[in-house]
Amino acid sequence: MHGVVVKKNGETVEVSIGEDEKEPVFCVTDLLPHLAARQNERPLKDGLKGEELNIVVGSLPFQDEEVKEPVKLMALSLLNEKYGITEKDFFRAEIEMVPAVKARDVGFDTSMIGAYGQDDRVCAYTALTGPSATSLLPIGVNRVEGEFEKDDIVRIVAPDGEPIGVGRVACSSAKARQTMGQKGGRPVVHYDYLYLD
């Protein structure tokens, strides 16, 4: 779980849970075939919609019989304890759930790597130019040229140097260089401010 939450007082809180082996991870519940009648009627490309996936964040209830949603309250109380955030803070948040998988060798000859994300960072191009809106994350950046500040407009180019669009950056060039190629973290260019050619 990665993201940024802006609290009511304007304070920004970065959330990162699941990267450390001692931290919990989350899962998406299976959709049982007998409950998926409407989903089964859809074309395959529309079969799984991210907004419809249910993520399991806990199962223990808050100990109060008067509470209507005790499991939700328990999860929120744990988030409040660790990060000082409340349910209303999620209206000003951008949270992403990403697979918690370590890179592993694939095949008898171990000639390939299986992992979540872009192991060679070339896949960022297809992610940006694909049919779904996506932000440019640090892992998809393999080179930063020139100097810029947060909120500047920058040109985004493919690995072959071909321009593919422009975007308003969410960080300085120094920060982009510091985080490029890294998993997690805030987007370098959020999809709301990304304009592709």
Estimated structural class: alpha+beta
Tally of separate helices: 4
Strand order of the largest sheet: 2-1-5
Mean pLDDT: 82
Q: Which sequence of SSEs, written as H and E, runs from N to C?
A: EEEHEHEEEHEEHE
Low-confidence stretches: 118-122
- Please give the number of β-strands: 10
Terminal residue distance? 31 Å
Biggest sheet character? 3 strands, antiparallel
Beta-strand portion reads 15-25%
Q: Give Rg in angstroms.
A: 20 Å
The percentage helix is: 10-25%
**Global geometry:** globular
Structure commentary:
Strands 2-1-5 form a 3-stranded antiparallel beta sheet, with no helix packed on it. Strands 8-9-10 form a 3-stranded antiparallel beta sheet, covered by helices on one side. It is an alpha+beta fold and 197 residues long. The chain is globular. Strand 1 (2-6) and strand 2 (12-16) form a beta hairpin. The protein has helices at residues 37-40, 70-83, 123-129, 173-179, and strands at residues 2-6, 12-16, 27-28, 55-56, 93-96, 104-106, 112-114, 153-157, 163-169, 189-196. Residues 118-122 have low confidence and may be disordered. The longest helix is centred in the middle third of the chain and has 14 residues, at 70-83. Helix content is 16%, strand content 22%. The chain is built from 4 helices and 10 strands.
